[in-house]
Design brief:
InterPro entries: RP532 (IPR019284). The N terminus is likely disordered. The chain starts with a helix and ends with a helix. It contains five helices and no strands. The chain has one domain.
Length: 151
């Protein structure tokens, strides 16, 4: 949520609080009358009464406003799906690149051990193997946690 929208919401909340405080100061009978008329609305399209007034000013305007709201919603959903798809592809690509790089480093370590550089080869292969196992175990634990939070 951007800062301007948050400020609008806080401003609206302050205004609503002021209205409620004003109503509470009224006599009981007037409170009931005010509360029965107090109406709040929030949504991607204007309140039906407001749409009706737009339509009175310009016939067909309400229909255009509603259609625009529907198109905006469809567009937003499409962008969200694309973002999720790109994130999934990026994650898979990173995993394969990490796996490939790990195998290469472990292979180089094994080659060093074969060539007689036992300590260097063992350290290189061992650290790479432990890192790869940690990466995959960590990512599977992270996936389980995400799935549990989604439920």
């Amino acid at each position: 949520m951007n800062e301007e929208h948050q400020n609008d919401l806080q401003g609206n909340s302050t205004n609503v609080d002021k209205v409620i405080d004003s109503v509470k100061k009224l006599p009981r009978e007037e409170q009931e009358m005010a509360i029965s008329k107090l109406e709040m609305y929030s949504g991607p399209i204007p309140h039906p009464d407001i749409l009706k007034k737009y339509d009175e000013l310009d016939p067909g305007a309400a229909k255009l406003i509603i259609e625009n709201g529907v198109k905006e919603s469809e567009h937003r959903r499409k962008l969200e799906l694309q973002a999720m798809s790109y994130t999934a592809k990026d994650s898979k690509r990173r995993e394969w690149m990490g796996f490939t790089l790990g195998i290469i480093i472990i292979s180089v370590g094994a080659l060093l051990i074969y060539l007689g550089h036992t300590i260097t080869g063992t350290l290189l292969s061992g650290i790479s193997a432990v890192s790869l196992v940690g990466l995959f175990v960590g990512s599977s634990e992270e996936t389980k946690n995400k799935e549990a939070n989604d439920d």
